[in-house]
């Protein structure tokens, strides 16, 4: 069988860049294969995809060596339009995906280009929208949707425009775990229906492996480090060695000394074959350490009381009440569209309550301007394009510090330190427009963190970070929290909640469903369902190994991983 994609000693370099982004790549992908390409930010995985679909390789300011063939044709002989008929793509920066004024127009775009009859076009659009649960959104503008909703709509655009190859660049960005599972299932069904070759660019390995893949290709620094089946790769330490989070149940098994082989099918917990001896090893490792429990009582800093808000008669929040204590690190969770981002906008003053009130330090926020709130509350939205406005990465941080009246020396020191923490120092003079989506995400976080406001609200703090960057950022947030900063994390990452949050506030359909500890959430299947969360694989492993209470296995792993990181840092 001839490969449908073939890289032959392929090197790609931006003319202004010091180093090639792709280095001597040789890779064959065959028709009908389902491939995961993964790696840390800057590893070259998105550039590899951009060369396949022609979105970057056709630029003038690039240097290319070697050959790339797509569907038997040398890409040098094809323009972007010709490649688009072979390769369909859902971009990581979803804002770049939309061309229609409404969702319906956007899904119909490819059909209009193919001169499909209006009646057939309408039926096809409705069928595609229904497959991604977006049929009620067809008359809405893309700007009115959440990131997760926009990503589903972009997938619908691929359904109507069948191609031989489909590429999904970070398709799980911003999706809650259940929505991520649905997306992986949908992506897999699209590939099966169209018989397309499927390429997924994604660091969330455990979520992607919810459905079977043929190969995992690991990239780092522009090179292919490893190309194996999922069962083979997960038996090695290569993912963790290159800054990626492997499935948590595998990390626990390895710490417990369980030997992993491809024959045990470790790609998913439901395929994993553990012997009784393996389960005993996990139980023994768990009981070798005691779990520390307890919490501190704090005074109320932020009070939300009977908060209600909606658009055009549609209630987005309904009678929500809760308090955040000074020095807390609280997670607000819920399925996409539950009201998390709306709540953040109301606290920051971007929207005005229909009913109820919000108080900060006992003072109503209605009496504060947005500028006054911004001095007390730092907000990092999920979409970085909303926040970024300056020419370079350094300018972005310096601009905010200038507004605070800091002197030039302090501005340079603080900005450079924060760029280093967020892994952006080497890009400090790079134009913001040239940064990748994940780099923009980190920059938007850095631009708020550099101001050290008393309260931080961060929408999906883990998005855009590889594993090492994630730990560095979250440990920095933990340090700020220990120093007194109150932090509110809008997230659907259950592992993040377990490791860093003291409380979890669950929103469901605009109402407050629960306010509890992460451990309580883990044991409450009804609340997990309301929040569109799935049980962590550690919880499943604990039950399989007869560990009670099962949530304590999560605490055990978190403590071990922190000790390992502290040891490495020393």
Explain what the structure shows.
This protein is an alpha/beta fold and 570 residues long. It folds into 3 domains: 5-239, P-loop containing nucleotide triphosphate hydrolases (Rossmann fold, 3-Layer(aba) Sandwich), CATH 3.40.50; 247-288 and 535-570, no CATH class; 300-534, P-loop containing nucleotide triphosphate hydrolases (Rossmann fold, 3-Layer(aba) Sandwich). 38% of the residues lie in helices and 22% in strands. It is built from 23 helices and 20 strands. Strands 6-7-8-3-9-10 form a 6-stranded mixed β-sheet, sandwiched between helices. Strands 16-17-18-13-19-20 form a 6-stranded mixed β-sheet, sandwiched between helices. Strand 11 and strand 12 (314-325) form a beta hairpin. Helix 5 (118-131) crosses helix 6, helix 6 packs parallel to helix 7 and helix 15 (393-403) runs parallel beside helix 17 (437-449). The radius of gyration is 24 Å and the shape is globular. Residues 291-297 have low confidence and may be disordered.
CATH arch. level architecture of the largest domain: 3-Layer(aba) Sandwich
Number of domains: 3
Number of E-type strands = 20
Looking at this structure, what is the CATH superfamily of the largest domain? P-loop containing nucleotide triphosphate hydrolases
Relative strand content: 15-25%
Q: Which sequence of strands runs across the widest sheet?
A: 6-7-8-3-9-10
The major sheet is characterized as: 6 strands, mixed
Q: In CATH's first tier, which class of the largest domain applies?
A: Alpha Beta
Structural class: alpha/beta
Q: How far do the termini sit from each other? A: 52 Å
Helical stretch tally: 23
CATH topology of the largest domain: Rossmann fold
Helix content: 25-40%
The value of Rg in angstroms is: 24 Å
Give the averaged pLDDT, no decimals.
86
What would the principal axes of the Cα set say about the shape?
globular
- Unreliable residue stretches: 291-297
């Amino acid at each position: 069988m001839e490969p449908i994609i073939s890289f032959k000693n392929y090197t790609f370099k931006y003319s202004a860049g010091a180093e090639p982004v792709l280095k001597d790549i040789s890779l064959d992908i065959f028709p009908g294969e389902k491939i995961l390409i993964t790696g840390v930010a800057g590893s070259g995985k998105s550039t590899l995809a951009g060369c396949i679909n022609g979105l970057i390789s056709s630029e003038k300011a690039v240097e290319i060596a070697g050959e790339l063939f797509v569907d038997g044709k040398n890409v040098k002989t094809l323009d972007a339009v010709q490649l688009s008929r072979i390769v369909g793509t859902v971009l990581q920066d979803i804002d770049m995906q939309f061309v229609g004024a409404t969702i319906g127009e956007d899904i119909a775009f490819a059909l209009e280009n193919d001169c499909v009859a209006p009646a057939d076009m309408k039926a096809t659009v409705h069928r595609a929208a229904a497959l991604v649960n977006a049929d009620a959104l067809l008359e809405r503008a893309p700007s009115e949707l959440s990131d997760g909703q926009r990503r589903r709509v972009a997938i619908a655009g691929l359904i109507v425009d069948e191609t031989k190859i489909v590429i999904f660049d970070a398709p799980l960005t911003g999706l809650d775990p259940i929505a991520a599972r649905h997306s992986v299932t949908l992506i897999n069904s699209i590939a099966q229906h169209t018989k397309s070759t499927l390429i997924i660019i994604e660091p969330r390995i455990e979520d992607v492996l919810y459905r079977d893949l043929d190969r995992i290709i690991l990239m780092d620094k522009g090179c292919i480090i490893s190309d194996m089946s999922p069962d083979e790769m997960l038996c090695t330490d290569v993912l963790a060695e290159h800054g990626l989070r492997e499935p948590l149940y595998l990390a626990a098994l390895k710490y417990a000394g369980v030997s992993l082989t491809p024959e045990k099918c470790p790609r998913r917990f439901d395929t994993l074959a553990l012997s009784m001896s393996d389960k005993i090893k996990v139980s023994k490792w768990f009981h070798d350490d005691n779990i520390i429990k307890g919490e501190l009582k704090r005074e109320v800093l932020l009070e939300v009381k009977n908060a209600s808000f909606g658009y055009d008669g549609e209630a987005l929040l309904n009678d929500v009440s809760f308090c955040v204590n000074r020095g807390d690190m609280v997670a607000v969770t819920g399925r996409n569209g539950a009201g998390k981002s709306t709540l953040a906008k109301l606290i920051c003053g971007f929207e005005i309550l229909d009913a109820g009130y919000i108080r900060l330090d006992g003072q109503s926020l209605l009496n504060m301007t947005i500028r006054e709130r911004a001095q007390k509350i730092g907000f990092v939205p999920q979409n970085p394009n909303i926040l970024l406005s300056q020419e370079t990465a350094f300018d972005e941080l310096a601009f905010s510090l200038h507004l605070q009246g800091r002197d030039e020396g302090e501005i340079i020191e603080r900005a450079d330190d924060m760029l280093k923490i967020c892994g952006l120092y080497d890009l400090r003079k790079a134009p913001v427009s040239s940064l990748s989506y994940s780099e923009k995400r980190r920059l938007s976080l850095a631009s708020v963190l550099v101001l050290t406001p008393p309260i931080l609200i961060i929408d999906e703090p883990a998005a855009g970070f590889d594993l090492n960057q994630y730990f560095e950022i979250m440990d920095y947030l933990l340090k700020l929290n220990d120093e007194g900063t109150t932090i509110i994390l809008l997230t659907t990452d259950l592992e993040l909640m377990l490791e860093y949050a003291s409380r979890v506030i669950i929103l469901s359909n605009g109402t407050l469903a629960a306010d509890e500890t992460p451990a309580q959430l883990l044991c409450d299947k009804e609340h997990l369902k309301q929040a569109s969360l799935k049980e962590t694989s550690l919880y499943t492993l604990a039950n399989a190994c007869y560990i009670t209470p099962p949530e304590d296995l999560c605490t055990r792993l978190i403590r071990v991983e922190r000790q390992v990181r502290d040891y490495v840092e020393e």
